[in-house]
Write a structure and sequence with these properties.
heterodimer; A: about 325 residues; mainly alpha; Formate dehydrogenase/DMSO reductase fold; about 70% helix; about 0% strand; elongated; B: about 260 residues; alpha+beta; Alpha-Beta Plaits; four-stranded mixed sheet; two-stranded antiparallel sheet; 6 helices; about 25% helix
Chain lengths: ~325, ~260
């Protein structure tokens, strides 16, 4: 305004203090109003891509506990399977014991994580009001309960057998626990893939056929890795680790090669890189390390297997977090198609 | 024989007064939204959610010189009150693990807040992005279709308060007929770009809240083909069964192959 040429009146009017004050306040209000306008929406946002490019779907409401639960539950479920099969095949009792312990620890930690996400314990119990086969969430809650029962029986039974005179009955409890943990461990390690696949989130939904196998391999790799980190060097674990890493490599390649635009969040941006980092740590790296370790001897082979184990465990955890994160991005980018 | 209650929201009659939003909050005791200044036309609510069960969309395009009024080629300036669709096959209802979501005698989808445990699975199973978890409360919320008012033989609060009868409440089949007649009437007046949103051909199998909107339905974030994720369960569980079988077989081969080596 000050640049405008001003015609000078004969008599300079007096400017009152109130007027100056008012002008100052107006300038302030104008400046504040300008600041309120988001820089990128100087004009109305486009209506060409949905309603002002706002998401059509809601983002998942899950907190950090859920991806962690996917990791813990997956590793625990696979450990339950390994414990039962290892015992059946007459593998070392220490290996069987440690696999049972991982399963048990996971079966305690999993409900705690779920309760923490829900807010209070009674809310977890509400999951057990009904059994709804058409809801993977309901199926999963019951699978977890069944698995926890089995894993608890296997561990508590073992403890009673070792420390009290009731060994006979306790061994029976332990053996049944192993079987129950095996039967529920298999769905526990796989159902989370169905859980997120059977949703409206495009990046998850398009991969519903891939996800259960992907998560099963991830859980198996984590379980094998944890057992190896506990010092076990069974060739069976090496074989399982190789199989899981090979599967994860194939999964990673399948995601990378998918031409579906709905899987973009799995390939681009921070969520894409998270998927990639998790994938490489779960697939090619442990696969290569394990392969080299087969042709190495002594401490070198030992070291390589340990690295492969760490890589698989970390990769599995990152993979779960990455998939949940990609779901958020996918929901945020959802438009009516 | 139960009746199928339904909404017909005719956006050609909507004046954007937001009385429906207010009446809904008043009747249902829904907390206020955070005040945000979106800059997107007159819409500061932006979407349906845990605390917004009716939401007026303001579809305002950038004006072009010489095109105005009811010219379909002109930039749009439409209002449309959105609401939970109360799907014939509802994703949220299928997904709910606690049985909190139920189908009422009015064929609406009702979320029982005393049963909901806030697992959030309905949120990722709604193809319309309606139901949402209230972060403060920890449970999910959505439109109740004024179940309490319907029980007492009253119209839902939003339909009752709507000053232009843009929100009409009634029997689904009646409202479908009424929507057809309205489209014909609008066409007769030269408004040819109005259409009915009622996705009966999708696997949602139709909704109990249908809409008349002008212009491209996508401008209103209405998906042409909403999908109930339950349709993918067979593929998912088949894959899970194969994966579980492979895992068991692999473990057996690995351990029995290593047979009795006690390593």
């Amino acid at each position: 305004m000050s640049e405008l040429p001003r015609s000078r009146p004969d008599v300079e009017p007096e400017v009152s203090v109130e007027e100056l004050d008012r002008e100052q306040r107006l300038t302030l209000i104008q400046r504040q109003a300008m600041e309120l306008v988001p820089a990128e929406t100087s004009a109305l946002a486009s209506l060409k891509s949905g309603y002002y490019e706002l998401p059509m779907l809601k983002e998942p409401s899950w907190t950090w506990e859920i991806p962690l639960y996917f990791f813990v539950g997956g590793a625990a479920g696979a450990s339950g399977v390994i414990a039962a099969v290892a015992r059946l095949s007459g593998a070392s009792p220490q290996l069987v014991r440690d696999a049972r312990r991982i399963a048990f620890a996971g079966s305690i930690l999993s409900p705690l994580l779920l309760i923490s996400d829900l807010g209070r314990p009674a809310r977890f119990l509400a999951m057990l009001r009904v059994f709804k086969p058409q809801s993977p969430m309901s199926v999963g809650a019951w699978v977890l309960v069944g698995f926890s029962g089995g894993a608890t029986a296997a561990n508590v039974g073992g403890w009673i057998a070792d420390n009290t005179p009731y060994a006979g009955l306790a061994r029976l409890v332990q053996a049944s626990g192993d079987i129950v943990a095996l039967l529920f461990g298999l769905p526990l390690a796989t159902y989370t893939g169905v859980l997120i696949g059977a949703t409206v989130i495009p990046a998850w939904n398009r991969n519903i056929s891939l996800l259960p196998a992907h998560f099963a391999a991830s859980g198996l790799a984590a379980s094998v890795g944890l057992l190896e980190l506990m010092g076990h060097r069974s060739p069976a674990l090496q074989t399982l680790g190789m199989g899981a890493a090979l599967t994860e490599t194939a999964m990673g390649a399948s995601i990378e090669l998918s031409p579906d635009p709905a899987v973009e969040p799995l390939k681009h941006g921070p969520s894409g890189w998270l998927i990639r980092v998790g994938g490489v740590l779960s697939g090619p790296i442990p696969l290569a390390l394990r392969a080299i370790s087969l042709f190495s001897k002594g401490r070198r082979a030992e070291r390589l297997r340990k690295y492969a184990a760490v890589s698989s465990v970390v990769g599995s955890a990152i993979t779960r977090a990455a998939w949940i994160h990609a779901g958020h991005i996918s929901a945020r980018e959802s438009r009516p198609a | 024989m139960s009746t199928t209650s339904a909404f017909l929201t005719d956006s050609t009659l909507c004046i954007g007064c937001k009385a429906c939003e207010v009446a809904c909050k008043e009747w249902n005791g829904v907390a206020a939204d955070d005040l945000v200044w979106s800059g997107l036309s007159y819409d500061n609510t932006l979407s349906l959610g845990a605390r917004t069960w009716r939401h007026v969309k303001f579809v305002e395009g950038i004006p072009e010189a010489g095109k105005g009024g009811n010219d379909p080629a002109g930039s749009p300036w439409n209002f449309s009150s959105d609401v939970c669709k109360h799907c014939e096959t509802a994703g949220c209802l299928e997904a709910c693990p606690t049985g909190a979501l139920v189908r009422t005698e009015f064929e609406s989808v009702y979320l029982q807040p005393d049963v909901c445990n806030g697992c959030g699975y309905c949120v990722v199973n709604c193809p319309f992005g309606v139901v949402e978890k209230d972060e403060e409360d920890g449970r999910a919320f959505k439109c109740t279709f004024c179940y309490d008012r319907q029980k007492a033989g009253l119209k839902p609060a939003c339909a009752k308060v709507c000053p232009t009868e843009s929100i009409q409440f009634g029997e689904l089949d009646d409202l479908r007929d009424r929507a057809q007649r309205r489209i014909a009437e609008l066409k007769g007046r030269g408004i040819g770009d109005a259409s009915i949103y009622d996705p009966v051909d999708s696997n949602v199998k139709g909704t109990h809240a249908i809409f008349i909107v002008r212009g491209d339905q996508k401008m209103y974030n209405l998906p042409p083909n909403p999908e109930v994720p339950t349709a993918y369960l067979r593929a998912g569980w088949t894959s899970a069964a194969i994966a579980a079988g492979a895992m068991l077989a692999g473990t057996l081969i690995a351990f029995l192959g290593a047979g009795g080596k006690r390593l």
